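Input set for joint prediction.
Command: fold jointly, output tokens.
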Amino acid sequence: MSKTIIVSNRLPISLRHRNGRFEFKPSAGGLATGLGSIYKEGENIWIGWPGNTVDDPEQRAEIILELHELKMAPVFLSKEDVEEFYEGFSNETLWPAFHYFTQYMVYNPEHWEAYVRVNRKFCEAILKKAGPDDTIWVHDYQLLLLPQMLREVLPNATIAFFQHIPFPSYEIIRMIPWRKELLAGMCGADLLGFHTYDDMRHFLSAVGRINGLSNESGYIQAENRIINVDSFPMGIDYDKFANQAKSKKTLQFVEEFGKQVEGQKLLLTIDRLDYSKGIPQRIQAFNQLLEQNKDLHGKVSMIMIVVPSRDKVQSYKELKEEIDLLVGRINSEYSTLNWVPVHYFYRSFPFEELSAFYNMSDIALVTPLRDGMNLVCKEFVASKTDQTGVLILSEMAGASKELQDAILVNPYDRQGVVDAIYNALSMPHEEQVARMKSMQASLKKYDVFQWVKVFMDRLDHVKTKQEELTSKDVDAKVMNEIQASFNKAKKAILFLDYDGTLTGFHTDPQKAVPDDELREIVKDLSKLAQVVIISGRDKDTLGRWFEGQNIDMIAEHGVWVKKKEDKGDWELYADVEDGWKDDIRKVMEYYVLRTPGAFIEEKHHSLVWHYRKVESGLGDLRMRELFSHLKYMARGHNLQVLEGNMVLEIKRPDINKGRAATAMMKGVEYDFILAIGDDWTDEDTFKAMPKNAYSIRVGYAYTQANFNIKSVKQVRQLLQKLTS
Ligand code: GDG
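tokens >
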């Protein structure tokens, strides 16, 4: 039976050293709750670091046993690993980069080496537990290399990845010296999830530009499989927060705490200590509110919980000092004997007390400068059981995409935040209820259990899609079958596309000349069968490249044909009416002038706009513009506009490779037919093939062909096999 393995840097427990013994404290975080529904079932397991260094082998053995009972397995990290991998590369390079704090980024090759080393450690720990068909769900930025490391050993495993923090724009990613390796590491997964659409779009753009992997609607075409990238906004355990807020224990705390701040409106802020959370900026906004509104003195207080985190990292130490200073300043300036503006706690609270803070506060001020999602704002909304209260939320938090009924603010706009607090303080009761109700309905529906379900369903869907493609793969068995059929045949014909099929792409199309190996393959094949090179290329290039070979050629998608018996003469297969070209060329030229690197290729029956050499992104944009421009003109001239591999082609619809291939076979009885091609122009060939033909598409795109083959290399292997 296959099982599911959850992997995250930290296990959902904390390991504490007390009185010479280790103790486990379960973590009550949202992720632990959401994934609890998975890892506690059957043979499933959670693998991660228990959060403390343990060097003694006996103690390690004891911990392994105890964690086994809890359905967890530890990855032990050395002190050096923690310093270089966790505090170093993860928290001093990736964390600031991914939150757009490039000024804090550390570029240390030793940290990078530790990152690779620890990802490998995780990989080895997983391999001890994982079977070839298991599902492995990797979490977050500390383990970006892990999916690919696992894929190399377990090619058929189901591997998913979820990123909890933002994924920044390509402009930031490209600053990281190891960006290519990081992205390739992530692409070992079958499904990659992010909190928001922007995160996924940034990832797709980076992987396209840096690793050359293009995508269509979130499906990346990797060498031998498709990878899906999608957005899955994470929810919370809604009922847990809603029920806790009504519980006796929490209500007791509400009463007790309430006495200390009687008669005051309460603003609540809760964060881990982190520069991404905008804590100093928030205190400054509160200070400005008090400066501008003397009438609020004594009537509003801020409860500020800062949970200690990463306090060994220098930038966090400095942040802590800055917060201490700002709180000290505001309190010393405004406090009276019976009013303290900021109640500041640098520690964490038990769940019941946290719930009391949510319940009793009038306003939650959640103003991170950047946040992947932010669960605090969702927990506040779920805890407002009487549906009063106002959420002020930063536009820079992933949650702002969902919680449109919050007061949304730009955390860098101090006066904007001040005004938002002022408006929240005076918001009419009915408006508070209306906003709260709508946010609660949405959070209840998309809770953390729903998040897990949607993610897992999507993973199933991707695997099914992949299987549909791989079941058509030309593997060793299919190769043997094709070879056997070819060997038996008395009259065989092979339609072979050129670019992307017999040879790879080149930035300069004229440089994709056939190499010696290819010439040899074609020569050997032509002794055994009728070989037809069927290409979109112009007849002169094709004729020159295959001069002297005993083969047939179809050029320009079927406009020209040259039969081997016709020694040197090209024959027009389709009469060409090209009165339309002047109008279209003018438009294309206009787009060439606006797009450095673009050029026009003229063929007898078509005009092609090439953008392979254009700055990536710009090429796509211009191609889309040109496409919509040409679409209307094409109708008037009865032409067809087609998108190809970095080209846009406009041509007569009745001229295509399929028609030419059919004409070529007319009147002859073939007992072996093979057609191989790599793009949409070859789909016409595949469609035109009789039922008994072998048709093969290079790459793993959806196709009319009956098989897919991985790459040019495999195509050549297959053809060599036919001649052996
Ligand atoms: C990362 C991403 C993304 C806080 N104080 C106490 C306490 N907490 C709990 C809250 C909440 C959690 O900590 C904080 O979660 P956030 O989502 O706000 O922030 P990160 O820790 O930075 O989390 C973030 C998240 O991953 C999930 O994908 O949303 O963007 O940065 O659950 O309740 N819990 C208790 N006492 C406290 O004093 N018990």
